[in-house]
Amino acid sequence: MSDFCYIYCITRENPDTACPKVSGHQGGEIVKIPYRQIAAFISKTSQSYFEPTFENLSRHEEVISFFMKEGSPLPMRFSTILSSEEKIKAMLETYYDQFMENLEKVEGKVELGVKVFCKLEIQEEKAAMPETSSPREYMLARYCQYQSRQRQTEGIMKETERLHDRLAALSCESSYTRPMKNNLFFNASYLVAKDQKEAFDREAEHLKKQYPAFKIVYSGPWPAYHFVTISKEDENEQLC
């Protein structure tokens, strides 16, 4: 029995917008729940939660991708599920102004992702460490290794800042983090106007050639997950 409603995205209401032919979770039909100038696209499901498996995540993205062809939807967080259509209408009413503001913000734009990986030259340093029985010489060698890693890390951070500045100049908004683990030094998202995407593509390819020591992973276009901000009235709610 389909008791729950899985929400994929919010769009501007357009009577001519057709529901995608792709199925939602559990093969559910995608249907529209309109409210004033916005609409939620959902499918019915018997589950109140979905595990973030590859199949489930792909299904979520596939439905949202349909709406990206014609516009700039607000993607809902994976496994956003409410108990009824009435609850969805209440959500649309409660957050209507914020949904409208965010729709205006992402209109005509897509999210593009850039990750920078770089491997420090640690293995070579270990091989170069002298074999010695002197604790002082051993500690000195280890300290030299530490200094070398610090210099490498600082150099990588400066270069990724330059890389970021060039990409940010082609975007409307951007954000990044520095995970600093598993050789990932830089993880960024850029909100880019669709008519600027080709220029952004070219710059990303140019940077790959300019920084051969970096592994630059470029992805997208994606829905604007990192640039949608909804101030929730209930902290337990999971929206965008």
Automatic annotation (TrEMBL):
Main localization is other
Q: Where in the cell is it found?
A: Gas vesicle
One CC-aspect GO term: gas vesicle
Recite the UniProt keywords alphabetically: Gas vesicle
UniProt KW Nucleotide-binding keyword: no
Biological process annotations from GO: gas vesicle organization
| InterPro entries named among the record's database cross-references | GvpL/GvpF
Q: What is this protein called?
A: Gas vesicle synthesis protein GvpL/GvpF
- Organismal lineage: unclassified sequences, metagenomes, ecological metagenomes
